[in-house]
Amino acid sequence: VQLADYVVLARETISACAKKYGMKALFLPKTSSTTAGNGLHLHFSFRDVRSSSDNSFLDSTQSTGISRKGGSFIEGILDHLPSLLSFSLPTNNSFRRIGPGCWTGSTLGWSTEDKEVPVRVCLDLITQEATNVELKLCDATANIYLELAMILAAGMEGIKKGRKLRPMATDATSEPLPQSLQESLDLLKNDEFLLSILGPELSTAYIAVRESEAQNEKSLEEEVMDAFHKA
Questions:
Q1: In the chain, what are the helix, strand and coil shares in percent, each to the nearest 5?
Q2: Please, what is the end-to-end C-alpha distance for the chain in angstroms?
Q3: What is the rounded average pLDDT of the residues 22-46?
Q4: For the whole model, what pTM was predicted?
Q5: Which residues on adjacent β-strands are paired with residue 42?
Q6: pLDDT (tens digit, 9 = 90+) per residue, 167-194?
Q7: Is residue 100 within 8 Å of 106, Cβ to Cβ?
Q8: What is the DSSP string of 117-133?
């Protein structure tokens, strides 16, 4: 929760400073068709309180260099990623940032130090050992509290169920991710685990609000795309 507080504080501080000098800070995921856009990527690492090591994400005995718990955490996220996008990319504009060359990834998979996959395992620059995992399909339009809660819940479910990490992504094995907010919301409606975390009242309200916003934004699509090409 404190981390989420810091994100909100940083955003408010940046906005206030920009306003002081007659400017407006934009955190929009995509403002031009010629730029990669703005993200708010999230990094996750953890340690075992029963261990003296500060990095429980690493296990050099595994072929991937990732501990079993670390691999299960990643697999939990990947298993629910199509639905999770409705929290981490909660606007139509968010999905305009997905695609080749935008450093986000557009297919379902993970890799090591590859900026064109959605889930990237990061390595220490000196030791080249796994240190943490980065989820790139996130931006500043998300409710950071809800977003983190859902991502962590998905990862922890992977650990609880001991899910085995799938092979590293290749062009031949990658599955496409949702291409729109509505597509992700439709998948969320059938994701029993994530819906159980939200609860019936919040899940119904969240989906209804996001669907309404998506339809409203869709009505402005022509005007928005015209502005993108002029930017």
A1: 45, 10, 45
A2: 36
A3: 87
A4: 0.89
A5: 135
A6: 998 765 678 899 999 999 999 999 999 9
A7: yes
A8: SSEEEEE-TTT--EEEE
